[in-house]
Amino acid sequence: MRKLRFLYRTILKFDAPVRGHSFAIRCIPPTNQVQQVNIEERYVTPADCINEVTDGFGNLRYVGRINDYHTGFEYGVRGTAVVQSMQVQKEPLHGMYKYPSAFTGFAPSIRAFYESLTVPEGDALSRAVFLMHALYETMQYESGSTSIYTTAGEAFEKRKGVCQDYAHILIALCKMAGIPARYVVGMMIGEGYTHAWVEIYTGEGWYGLDPTNNLHIDDYYIKIAHGRDYADCIVDRGIFNGFTNQEQEIIVSVEEIS
Length: 258
Fold this sequence. Notes:
- The longest helix is centred in the middle third of the chain and has 15 residues, at 124-138.
- With 258 residues, this protein is an alpha+beta fold.
- Helices cover 17% and strands 46% of the residues.
- Strands 1, 2, 3, 4, 5, 10, 15 and 16 form an eight-stranded antiparallel β-sheet that branches. Strands 6, 9, 11, 12, 13 and 14 form a six-stranded antiparallel β-sheet that branches.
């Protein structure tokens, strides 16, 4: 068990005024069976109205609107989390996590790779860990080699990608093995950006694996949201009226405290 202090902050700057800005933001870590979260500050500015809602996957989300002209938009959250991971989060399985999604389809390249493996007999977790190790040995992490629109199959054909791609590919492999799996976005120890990983269903509940680093999700990770794939967990969706370029700065920090 560890106590972590976290900060998530996004700053958007527009080079010309925009208005009629509608937004939907997922950046609030929830309290669940493995993390007890204390929110010290949360904000969205500017905003004429904000509502806190729960999406169809059970994630917290802020939705709102800015009617007047503005040249900047900022939101963030900071607080602490007491985390005790490497345990199963017990909950019923929803059937949608058994089947491929837009980003995690059973591409021929992934199917061929899966069929080349000798997946051992055993429980869901041991088989998923085997698949994670195999993927880690095959893929190369390379920033900029893919985009947010890259599917699991497209990334695997390159044998290169980032955390989003590793998660999508492992989800596809697990589902080929009959193991339900879902995509997770969150934060991990250090400074940088959000991170993506996978939760597999053991038969009793969900258990986290990080295919990018070939690790079990331990007490150094803080979960924000989950879904079928990246599209279900986008931190910030928005639309506005105006012709402008935008500059984005994201600040993520997680540190252990006594």
